[in-house]
Design brief:
The structure is a single chain. The protein is of the alpha+beta class. The protein has three domains: about 290 residues, no CATH class; about 110 residues, no CATH class; about 60 residues, Arc Repressor Mutant, subunit A, CATH 1.10.10.410. About 40% of the residues lie in helices and about 20% in strands. It has a nine-stranded mixed β-sheet. The chain has a three-stranded antiparallel β-sheet with strand order 5-4-15, with no helix packed on it. Helix 9 packs antiparallel against helix 10, helix 12 packs across helix 14 and helix 12 crosses helix 15.
């Protein structure tokens, strides 16, 4: 029997606010453990929460970016559970009246476009952090109370690759909004995945497993791949699936059962009595909507329209907000209407340099005007493309101008016909067999002769000029 994979993702984002969600404690990653806390975020008796307006605005921005419907009435609830890093023994979250509902994110995965529904975007507070040592577990409450946004997808994802592409697209939009640093190493972005299998063609959802402890998008994908295999084996062996929470062990490449999965009734939700119902009026929503930046899909559309880029090229360039800004500055400064050459450099040699250095385009230490100057040397055939790529590497390493590096390394191409004719004469005399082959109509022989001239000139001969001179010489002879 064939099975269909059904995946839903819950993404938690720490919002980049100055203070915590319900108190005035400053948010500062890397502080001395338990130094950034107060009676409110520690849940002392009588300490009352006051909601952070900046966090509310950031949350509405995210919800609007995913085309969610903003709820006019929203409230906070107490989600009760007992864990060492939860100082109040409950988490302030949202249950039946979340901030927003019914959004979507369009992805392009496995050669097809697909719309993934977003059930809700809601607000809550973060818990503390447990640090496990050899003989003890320590708790740092600095993170407790940090504003957290939860983005819950519909179970519309049907493969680990789709889940990976969804997460990549979601992170891209969040970075453009500049409301979170999305740093998974710091815990600013965390993802839980719900996965189940069902017989192909069935409508009813299968019994799901919730996967936790995945600290990268690749980790999410790998955990889902393993879980598809595990659940398939259970089905084929006739065993019964149980709803549970499983941890991903990246070192062993497998998931491990942690506990039976809780349901909503286990958390005993009830409205937080210390926080009133919020009314989000339309003028507030309209004001925040007007402040939204140009998002990746809109920027990609503009790049194709204004600069004549293909959708493929534009998609690469807008995959990072800062990279898109760097690319657009280069494109705008590049002379002429046809921008294809500068784009080829951006997604070709420059991107290769960035990948090699494990950095982004905008992090490369290269002046925009100097990059354009280097491309100019190639366009007027002063240097070869191969030489230009070597110059680019040195420009990034030394931050010297292109012209200085070219002169220091004597890289200018030989285009002088008198000098080239002398080299061509020697090559023709040394390669009579190839000369005969060319005259017999074999075009590859010409390329061989050009290569020999390049070799004799230490790569400085202009190959285009050399090719024309050899053709003229052998055709006229």
């Amino acid at each position: 029997m064939k099975y269909e994979t059904v995946i839903g993702l819950e993404v938690h984002l720490q919002l980049k606010t100055k203070t915590k969600a319900f108190c005035g404690c400053a948010i500062d990653f890397g502080k001395i453990p338990n130094s950034g806390v107060c009676p409110v975020c520690l849940g002392f008796p009588g300490a009352l929460p006051v909601y952070n307006k900046e966090a509310l605005s950031s949350a509405i921005k995210v919800a609007l970016a995913f085309s969610c419907q903003i709820q006019e009435y929203t409230k906070f609830d107490r989600k009760n559970y007992f864990y060492p890093d939860l100082p109040k023994n409950y988490q302030i979250s949202q249950f039946d009246l979340p901030l927003s509902r019914n959004g979507y994110l369009d992805i392009f995965s496995e050669n097809k476009a697909k719309r993934i529904g977003i059930t809700r975007v809601h607000l809550e507070e973060d818990a503390g952090k447990l640090i496990h040592e050899l003989n003890a577990s320590l708790v740092d409450f600095n993170r407790a109370g940090v504003p957290l946004l939860e983005v819950v997808s519909e179970p519309d994802l049907n493969s680990p690759q789709e889940a990976f592409d969804y997460l990549t697209g979601l992170k891209n939009i969040i970075e453009y909004l500049d409301v979170s640093d999305c740093d998974m190493e710091k815990g600013s972005l965390r993802c839980d995945a719900n996965i189940s299998l069902r017989p192909e063609g069935a409508k009813e959802l299968g019994v799901k497993a919730e996967l936790k402890n995945m600290n990268s998008f690749k980790g999410v994908k790998d955990a889902l791949v393993f879980e598809v295999s595990r659940q398939t084996e259970l089905f084929e062996a006739g065993q019964t699936m149980v709803q549970e929470t499983r941890l991903w062990d990246a070192d062993k490449g497998l998931t491990i059962s942690m506990r039976n999965k809780e349901g909503a009734k286990d958390y005993r939700y009830f409205p937080d009595p210390d926080l009133t119902v919020f009314i989000i009026d339309q003028p507030m929503v309209s004001q925040i909507k007007a402040q939204l930046p140009e998002l990746p899909r809109e920027k990609m559309r503009r790049f194709t329209q204004d600069y004549g880029l293909s959708e493929y090229d534009a998609k690469i360039l807008v995959s990072s907000k800062k990279d898109a800004q760097f690319a657009e500055e280069c494109i705008q400064r590049y002379p002429g209407k046809d921008k294809k050459n500068i784009v080829n450099w951006l997604i070709g040699p420059l991107l290769s340099e960035a990948n090699f250095r494990k950095s982004n385009l905008h992090e490369l230490t290269i002046n925009r005007d100097e990059l354009i100057s280097l491309i100019g040397f190639v366009e007027d055939q002063s240097i070869s493309l191969l030489s230009a790529k070597l110059v680019l590497t040195q420009m990034i390493d030394s931050q010297k101008p292109a012209v200085v590096i070219i002169k220091e390394n004597n890289m200018l191409q030989i285009s002088d016909t008198v000098e080239l004719t002398q080299i061509i004469t020697a090559v023709i005399q040394e390669n009579e067999k190839s000369v005969s082959s060319f005259r017999a109509g074999k075009i590859n022989a010409l390329m061989f002769l050009v290569g020999q001239v390049m070799k004799k000139s230490a790569g400085k001969a202009n190959p285009k000029v050399v090719g024309e001179l050899i053709k003229r010489r052998l055709t006229d002879a």
